[in-house]
């Protein structure tokens, strides 16, 4: 979508702690006590500027729908694409960067990248700000769980949702909660640069949602964690479109292309939800014949072979 932000950050130092205790004699087993159920989240009233943003984004959604945009059909006979188009789109979306690090901050400057993806299971954890009503929490948790199953089936990667500690964090927050999210963000992503944290929590109004994926310096093309920020002020379809785009971008399709159609990896807002074209891009990205760290030039002939197999008789 036009107003989203997708950035992959390499070289982040992640801290891992392990505890090794000396062996001790086994005590008598104690009677287990069932843990007390978690209390229902305490909700707060959204601020006036959050309410104003809700009205603004509701109008944005109405305007886009009135223009025939935010399609949810995944594409059809009006959106054909060839193998050549698919290959070109993959190279632009999967092996180029939309943002470049300049003076410690990420700017909208396209640059050549490398094939990047997750090599470990992706466990999506969702958290909601206290101003997000329970009805939205319940609905969106189910939406993301269904989407995770689809991504896992399509890509072959292990993608799931957890209520415990995840490594792909999706935060649904109001504008006030985003601005106050810095300390929690630093806990979720140990070693995160303070300047990047400030950038993440300073989303201007035109940015609907954002995702940041992280890797270590010694394995810069293999993601180990990610965080996506989704505005709680969005109406249902805009919020769902953010989940679809940001989670897919966080899997490694980190760029957009104006030539991609039918696709959510395009700035024209035509499609709200992942399309068949986009599913094929994910299949290509997670095909093990495409090595991590491959440059655009070296990736192209490999992608051509994979695309031919996936499209079958389609030209």
From TrEMBL:
PROSITE patterns: PROKAR_LIPOPROTEIN. Pfam families: DUF2927. Residues 24-47 are annotated as: Disordered. The keyword Signal applies. It comes from the Bacteria. Residues 1-21 form the signal peptide. The keyword Ribonucleoprotein does not apply. Keywords: Signal. This is DUF2927 family protein.
